Amino acid sequence: MGTPVDDSFAYLEGLPCWGLQWDSYTSLRLNFGAPHLYIREPKVGTQPGQGRFVMSSYRMVQPEGEWALWLNTQRWRLTLPDIPPVTGSSSYRRIRMGMSRLEGQKLLAASVNPATGKTHIVFDLGGTL
Known about the structure:
alpha+beta, 3-stranded antiparallel beta sheet, two-stranded antiparallel ribbon
């Protein structure tokens, strides 16, 4: 039995990542495990025509994994065997290219430096985060 972080990553070992999402305002998200649908019902009482309130007046449905790994917006770096490294500050096109190549790779190992929080994740087809 390792640290709580090691134990959490143990659930993900050998699972392929899928449904990668990136948003420059939030973060990079990787899904693992069995998919299920997340359904957010429309919120009552929102005022039409006021930015974010407009979107909350609609139902949102999206597939999510049994587990999700979220990475800080600008603090990640993806290396793959066939393209230059990709980071949160790379162009949208390069980030999408990197995400498409990471999609489906199985998590082999993960380590976290307890002093700095720096995390290193290794995937089976050569991807590292």
